[in-house]
Amino acid sequence: MPTISTPGVGWDFSDVTRSDAALRRFLHGLPGVDQVGAEARAAALGTRSIKTTAKEQALDLAIRMVDLTTLEGQDTPGKVRALASKAMRPDPTDPTCPATAAVCVYPDLVGVAKDTLGESGVNIAAVATAFPSGRAARDIKLADTQDAVEAGADEIDMVIDRGAFLSGRYLEVFEEIVAVREACTQGERSAHLKVIFETGELQTYDNVRRASWLAMMAGGHFIKTSTGKVQPAATLPVTMIMLEAVRDFREATGQMVGVKPAGGIRTTKDAIKYLVMVNEVAGHDWLDPDWFRFGASTLLNDLLMQRTKMRTGRYSGPDYVTLD
């Protein structure tokens, strides 16, 4: 089992992860979430406003945090090439507009994205492990991951087995995350691992907190709310609980873990609410694409239109941005 330690601060989880019973004692021993209090605090943070200069900076930061995503059965190589081109140059009329963090696609389209992105610095994220359901044998999930990494994926977005988690088979979920992280290393290539909970299926905020700690203890580089295929997807209260978890995990272990809300974040106003929450709950260190991402397909367009409004003083027409 992995040991998490840092000079001067550390926490060895080997005893905790020795059995389902030990994991259950640890996870159920975490502080319970006050549902009313959590929702009230998230709502209060969502009312915060930021001034013009800060808003300009927030828009560019939000663009840099976007994982521009297409995860449909009708995806084609042409659509992925267009999306990758947009990720590199979100606003072709403005060379000062930053690129997005990543393009997120199915594993079989990683090669197409890689050919288009080249050495641009935009990462390639691939959803693996039988996304979005996670209903497959472990060897299939690991092969799915390995294929994506070998094809050039920089990041793997895996889904946990929610059935196992909700049944209390925590060690099974833990060991699968460990195995997928190991599969993220192929020869000289190594991909970061984002662990998707599908919070809309976890039923309680307590379960969100438990899943967060479980994934971090297993070595996930990011914890992610949703696949975008189940409602509700990302919400402010759920994201706040995950931000509290990564903050507390760093305090306990010295290690930072990223957070990625995904699904349902469509407007600049929404994005700014999340950025305020990141700053207030986890802290300024997480206001970086290395530690916070938006999983989105339509958010980028609104960010670009708001950015143009601030730059030119007028709103652009609906044909200013491409429809992805």
Automatic annotation (TrEMBL):
Its EC number is 4.1.2.4. InterPro entries: Aldolase_TIM, DeoC, DeoC/FbaB/LacD_aldolase. SUPFAM superfamilies: Aldolase. GO terms for biological process: carbohydrate catabolic process; deoxyribonucleotide catabolic process. GO terms for molecular function: deoxyribose-phosphate aldolase activity. CDD domains: DeoC. It comes from the Bacteria. Keywords: Lyase, Schiff base. Pathway: Carbohydrate degradation; 2-deoxy-D-ribose 1-phosphate degradation; D-glyceraldehyde 3-phosphate and acetaldehyde from 2-deoxy-alpha-D-ribose 1-phosphate: step 2/2. One of its GO terms (cellular component) is cytoplasm. It catalyses: 2-deoxy-D-ribose 5-phosphate = D-glyceraldehyde 3-phosphate + acetaldehyde. Belongs to the DeoC/FbaB aldolase family. DeoC type 2 subfamily. This is Deoxyribose-phosphate aldolase. It comes from Nocardioides marinus.
